[in-house]
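Listing S7. Sequence submitted for prediction.
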Amino acid sequence: IKEKNGRFGRLHPFVMFKALDHQKNYERKELEGAFRLMGDVDRRLKSTRTDPRFALEEMVFKLCGMSRKRR
């Protein structure tokens, strides 16, 4: 969750605390894949005329699918 320079960004401290607390439930590869997917969707939304609602719904389904594979 840390940025390369060791800072956490501008998130509220409670949000960061909860994120750090929950990260232990996931493997590093899973988190990296989720962040990569979110970055891809962000770029797609900013560079194309993709419907934002569709793109976000698709992302949520993919993230949920990643979670199901863990069980």
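Caption to Listing S7: primary sequence and predicted structure tokens for the chain studied. The chain has a mean pLDDT of 84. The radius of gyration is 14 Å.
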